[in-house]
Design a protein that fits this description.
The chain has 353 residues and is an all-alpha fold. The chain is built from 15 helices and no strands.
């Protein structure tokens, strides 16, 4: 299908935004000296007697957040409401697949991107402020001497901190998933389909990536998933059990990354403002990543594969780049042996090797 002038122009803009993103320097809300101090305090906390038990419990609970991805995508965003919204604006469509037959200009006009973006980001800011306030309260208890003698595992202050951070992580993952899921629906994709849940996770991973190598890996991963989905690659091994394991691993990685990025919450008082700001920024960045990712995928599929979204950046053979700041969904698929190795168009009658 030939792209309209608007679609071709937006494609060029998307590629420029991607290049600019890869060349953008990472900005930190805290100076290096403050981050070094926080890292030192964090290491001391981990060496406190009983801290390993708290960390283990926190990590185990984080894995349980994996169910948030599928549940949020499937239950909190209405496909029917999106279709009805298109119909109210004069487009007689019967389902999501027909949205992808419309011109991108039409879809951009119907999709309430700013409402999705800023509504979820502001909710995240409120969540970040509340969790940081609880963390600050926990610090006060801990600094009053509750840790001394009893050990970290018995300190109510540390328990308050762990509980607040876990609640914050759960809400942030739910908000991130809902932000991406809402965007997916407006561009004609059902986020509750198993293979689409993988794409949702990859979009969240892109929004969480800050380093250049992590962003490069995330862009390549989205490009690979886009090509697999556009070619209707077989996902024979992606059953409910495998998808649950992948979602759990993704949630654990998300938790680890979010905790590292939000260490500023452990700064008394100022942590509340920092926590709110970081939460807002994370969801805002995920919302922007979602809009760009689905618009790019929309155009790639509409062009019949003539366009490619894989940026010409970095070296390598196309495999995902490993980075401390990257969450690799493709790698999780490989670990579960669930990554398609062929497509209907090239598999023929030959068995996979």
């Amino acid at each position: 299908m030939i792209l309209s002038a608007y679609e071709q122009r937006e494609w060029d803009r998307l590629q420029k935004r991607k290049a600019d993103s890869l060349n953008k320097q990472v900005r930190n809300l805290l100076p290096q000296s403050a981050r070094d101090r926080l890292a030192s305090l964090g290491q001391k906390a981990m060496n406190t007697p009983g801290a390993d038990k708290v960390a283990a419990a926190y990590g185990g609970a984080a894995k349980g957040l994996g169910k948030v991805v599928g549940d949020t995508a499937g239950r909190t965003v209405s496909k029917k409401r999106v279709v009805e919204q298109y119909r109210r604006t004069g487009h007689d469509i019967a389902g999501l697949d027909e949205i992808r037959e419309l011109d991108l200009r039409v879809v951009d006009e119907v999709a309430r991107h700013n409402l999705v973006r800023y509504g979820h980001a502001l909710s995240a800011a409120a969540t970040g402020f509340g969790s940081a306030a609880a963390v600050t309260g926990g610090e006060v208890l801990a600094s009053a001497g509750t840790i001394a003698g009893a050990g970290a595992g018995a300190a109510p202050g540390l328990g308050t901190v762990a509980g607040a951070m876990l609640a914050d992580t759960a809400m942030m993952l739910a908000l991130a998933t809902r932000t991406v899921a809402a965007t997916a629906l407006y561009y004609g994709y059902c986020p509750s389909d198993p293979e689409e849940e993988l794409f949702v996770m990859s979009v969240i991973a892109l929004g969480m990536a800050t380093g250049t190598s992590a962003k490069t890996a995330a862009y390549r991963e989205l490009s690979q998933l886009t090509q697999l989905l556009a070619r209707n690659a077989p996902w024979a091994k992606l059953n409910e059990k495998v998808l649950t394991k992948i979602a759990q691993s993704f949630a654990a990685n998300f938790t680890q990354q979010l905790t590292k990025k939000k260490l500023g919450q452990f700064v008394p008082i100022a942590g509340m403002a920092v926590g709110a700001g970081l939460s807002y920024r994370h969801i805002d960045r995920i919302a922007v990543s979602a809009r760009d990712a689905y618009r790019e995928r929309f155009l790639i599929e509409k062009s019949g594969g003539d366009l490619t979204g894989d940026p010409n950046c970095g070296d390598g053979d196309g495999d995902s780049v490993q980075d401390d700041d990257a969450i690799g969904v493709i790698e999780l698929l490989r670990e579960e042996d669930a990554l398609p190795t062929s497509t209907p168009s090239d598999s023929g009658d030959q068995p996979d090797n």
